[in-house]
Amino acid sequence: MITHARRLCCIPALLAIVASAVTAQNPRITVFISDTHFGVGKTPDGKWHPYEDARWATEFKLFLEQLNREGNGQIDLILNGDTFELWQSLQNDCIYPDENLSCTEGQALTRLKTVIAAHQAELDSIRAFAVSGDNRVFIIPGNHDASLRFPALTAEVLRAIAAPADRVKIPTDGYWLSADALIYAEHGHQIGKDPNQFSKWPTPFVDSNGVTYMQRPWGEQFVQKFYNSYEMKYPIIDNIQGELTGVRYGYKAEGTIGLAIALGRLVVSTLLQSSWTQNGAVVGAQNGVKWDTVAIRKAGDRFFADSIPKDDPLRTLVEKSLNDGSFGAKLSDLTDKEIQSICDVRAAIVAEDTRNRKPLRVELCPKATLGAGASALTSSRDSIYQQYLIDTFTRLRALGSTRPFSLFIFSHTHLAEASYSPFARSTSSSWRPIVVNTGAWQRTISEQQLEKLMRDRGVKEKDVLKLQPEDLPPCYPVIIVAPYSSTPQSLLRYWRQAGGNWSFADTCN
User: Fold this and answer.
1) Would you say 142 and 34 are in contact if contact means Cβ atoms under 8 Å apart?
2) Residues above pLDDT 70, as percent of the chain
3) Which of 112, 255, 296, 489 places its Cα 20 to 30 Å from the Cα of 376?
4) Is 331 domain-assigned?
5) What is each CA distance from 309 to 253, 279, 430, in whole angstroms?
6) How confident is the model over 444-496, as pLDDT tens digits?
7) Residues 354 and 427 in one domain
8) Last residue of a domain, which of 403, 423, 438?
């Protein structure tokens, strides 16, 4: 039996893992982190710019040094996307009448040079790690730093790190694959109906009038129209896990968000994706059910507002957006399977409220019973990931890979997840790849942790966003794959500060 993401509570160091696998066919440790979001740095007065999420050069340096010591200089380190924050800028640049156009290569390079100047210390730490022993570093482009696909930006990053060419690489195909093809890693912004995906990934470019631009996905448009302006006032708004959670607290802080944008695609994406993990534990796994999509379509776009809990202030915003025609999504845009998925989320919320004997925050979709409806959630999530994994292996096979990967590692959502098996209940496939999410290597906080922090400090809801990133838990997730002889096994650990000391731990608590 394959076991993944094991909790090794009694093994404090990576050396113990190495010692237990001295006969491994693959003797190297593989480490994955993501979403450091090295950004614009400090203002001229020496204070952190509100945009800057990466304020942790010292703990990043200590992290890499500890990895190197415990891994004995035999580590492949994969920075799995969004290492650099290239969506935010201190200049009014990369703005065009066509919102689908983003930076040219020259504009993107200017942004990158600002980031490099602000984070040379972290790049120096990467170089020191890369040249030690036989370590290797791979920097995978994500959606926020997809412009690394421009040759000039690739060259500039490698120049700034200044390590030997065989020690630091930026793959041009947008993913990392282990030598034995058993571990596949990508950032994850192309999965499902993600609003951050590029239409021709890993080529994120658009040609217009003889000029090559970065394509601007809708997620970038949202960041620039919402997060950029609100992060100036509330630096932690994008450190709260779950995209819509930050929107909700912005609503509470402002009374009204007043966005002249369409929230539709973000709401749809969140209903289809972000809620799967939080609701998956609630509903269990049984046989799915068909919802009455014909009746749902007849009811119209009100479906979106009805799918958000009644106690969530975001519902009011969505209702207003639907009423004034700015929502940006229509029910006709969704397939029946996608409507099924959103109904599954509603059923999970109903199941939770029923279990806790609370008033229902949403209503079930038509033609369903609670038990059958709630159980459909797992199968919907499974089907999305099954198809994506199959498509990914099909693409790899076309490139010459004949061995299916057994471990799929992605990031992007900022939500660490130790182990998920989308084919576990499949009767039509013997393939059982495990899916793992690295989370974000920055200070983030879940809604539950934030509520506790509010209680402990007596912070009111309207004042939550006045907190600073430094107020958030000093804890960073990392995925570790130990040396293995046949099947890779992943371990979710945390680089955590406790009692003034930094070490690896099983949780952030």
Assistant:
1) yes
2) 82
3) 489
4) yes
5) 19, 13, 38
6) 888 788 888 888 899 887 788 888 899 999 999 999 999 999 999 999 999 99
7) no
8) 403
- Cβ proximity of 461 and 252 under 8 Å: yes
Residue 462 tokens, joined: 């309207």
State the Cα–Cα distance between residues 158 and 170, nearest whole angstrom: 8
Q: Which residues contact 27 (CB under 8 A, 6 or more apart)?
A: 21, 74, 483
Whether residue 161 contacts residue 112, with contact meaning beta carbons closer than 8 Å, is answered with: no
Same domain, 251 and 203: no
Residue 359 Cα to chain centre, angstroms: 32
Give the whole-angstrom CA distance, residue 37 versus residue 356. Answer: 39
What integer pLDDT is reported at residue 367 of this predicted model? 73
How large is the greatest C-alpha to C-alpha distance in the chain, in angstroms? 65
Contacts of 11 (CB under 8 A, 6+ apart): 17
Mean pLDDT, rounded, for 349-373: 77
Residue 381 and residue 416 in one domain: no
CA atoms within 13 A on the CB side of 61: 12
Domain that holds residue 352: 240-403
How many C-beta atoms lie closer than 10 Å to residue 258's C-beta? Answer: 8
What confidence category does residue 275 fall into, taking pLDDT thresholds of 50, 70 and 90?
Answer: very low
Instruction: Kindly state the average pLDDT of the residues 358-370.
Output: 81
C-alpha–C-alpha distance, residues 447 and 350, integer Å: 20
In terms of Cα–Cα distance, which of 74, 151, 130 is closest to 483? 74
CA–CA separation, 472 and 240 (whole Å)? 10
Backbone phi and psi for residue 355, each to the nearest 5 degrees, phi listed first: -60, -40
The pLDDT value recorded for residue 254 is 61
pLDDT at 229: 66
Q: Is residue 316 part of a domain?
A: yes
Q: Which two tokens stand for residue 263?
A: 């929230």
Structural contact between residues 86 and 35, judged by C-beta atoms closer than 8 angstroms: no
> Which pLDDT value is given to residue 265?
62
Q: What residue type is assigned to position 320 of the chain? A: K
Q: Per the structure, how many domains does the chain have? A: 2
Q: Which of 496, 318, 421 is nearest to 4 (CA)?
A: 421
| Residue in the structure block whose two tokens are 């799929």 | 408
Evaluate whether 184 touches 408 at the Cβ level (below 8 Å). Answer: yes
Residue 260 identity (one-letter amino acid):
A
Both structure tokens of 339: 């409507």
Q: What is the side-by-side strand order in the sheet with 490-498?
A: 168-169, 136-140, 75-80, 29-33, 475-481, 490-498, 501-505
Could you tell me if 224 and 174 lie in one domain? yes
* Burial class of residue 212, CB neighbours in 10 A (0-12, 13-18, 19+): exposed
CATH of the domain at 168: 3.60.21
Strand partners, 409: 185, 436
Q: Do 316 and 361 belong together in one domain?
A: yes
Same domain as 493, residue 354: no
Which residues on adjacent β-strands are paired with residue 184?
A: 177, 408
Measure the CA–CA gap between 461 and 476, rounded to whole angstroms. Answer: 25
Structural domain includes residue 17: no
